[in-house]
Design goal:
Number of strands: 5
Pfam family, one: HTH_17
CATH architecture: Orthogonal Bundle
Number of domains: 1
Order of helices and strands: EEHEHHEEH
Protein name: Helix-turn-helix domain-containing protein
CATH class: Mainly Alpha
Domain Helix-turn-helix: 33-77
InterPro entries: HTH_17
Shape: globular
Strand content: 15-25%
């Protein structure tokens, strides 16, 4: 974590990309479902399925359920 002095003496906290990714995903299991993917990335259902369909995010299926490893989401971010 880094601190910078901004205008008017206000400190701005800057998180590097690794810290940001860890904070975004810390409340989720190692494998997430489509709903959690939508929450983490703040995207809609159609966009989430598009990321999976185009291969931008790696996944595996268990029956009809998509499972996305958290590591793959971190790499995407």
């Amino acid at each position: 974590m880094k601190l910078y002095l901004g205008k008017f003496g206000i400190y701005i906290i800057y998180l590097d990309s690794m810290e940001m990714r860890e904070k975004m995903l810390q409340n989720y299991d190692d494998i997430v479902n489509i709903e959690n993917l939508m929450k983490v990335l703040d995207i809609g259902r159609n966009t989430a399925y598009k990321l999976l369909r185009t291969g931008e995010l790696q996944l595996f299926k268990v029956g009809k359920v998509y499972k996305i490893p958290k590591k793959c989401i971190e790499e995407y971010i």
